[in-house]
Amino acid sequence: MIDIGIFQGEYLILKRPRLAWGIYKGQEVEPTSYSSTQFMKPCLNGMPRFWNGFPLREGASAIINARGLATVGDHMARTAGLINSAKEMLYLSNVPDGEGPVIIGDYSNEPI
């Protein structure tokens, strides 16, 4: 599952060169981030507006989701979860930086 997350992270870096691997160290403007489950874990830095991507978490979710798809009667699993999360991160990495309001649109048509 870590390999899937690393692959997705490297793919996103290839598509958006300003992204880079880093460690999530929280945000001063959001003190609760220091106690989050993602604190001090690998993430993708370089996204606007203090956003970070967590492809390793997405890789783990993809494995759990695949197990759910293989289970008869599991209605919570969804197809294309990993692809949709990659599209979302690609879309969010193009949002303009700044402090003004931003309208987040539909990322499902983001080219992958």
Secondary-structure map with pairings?
Blueprint: H1 2-15, E1 20-23, E2 42-45, H2 55-69, H3 81-92
Antiparallel strand pairs: 1-2
Helix pairs in contact: 1-2, 2-3
Unreliable segments of 5+ consecutive residues: none
Radius of gyration: 15 Å
- Give the beta-strand count: 2
Structurally, how many domains make up the residues? 1
Q: What is the mean pLDDT?
A: 81
Spatial strand arrangement across the major sheet: 1-2
The SS-based structural class is mainly alpha
Q: What's the end-to-end separation, in Å?
A: 21 Å
Gross morphology: globular
The biggest beta sheet reads: 2 strands, antiparallel
Number of helices: 3
Residue fraction in strands: 5-15%
Q: Which percent bin holds the helix content?
A: 25-40%
Order of helices and strands: HEEHH
Describe the structure.
It is a single chain. By secondary structure, the chain is mainly alpha-helical. It has one domain (2-92). The protein is built from 3 helices and 2 strands; from the N terminus they run αββαα. A two-stranded antiparallel ribbon has the order 1-2. α1 packs across α2 and α2 runs antiparallel to α3 (81-92). The chain is globular. The model has no long low-confidence stretch (mean pLDDT 81).
Characteristic key phrases:
two-stranded antiparallel ribbon; mainly alpha; globular; 112 residues; 37% helix; 2 strands
Concise summary:
It is built from three helices and two strands, in the order H-E-E-H-H.
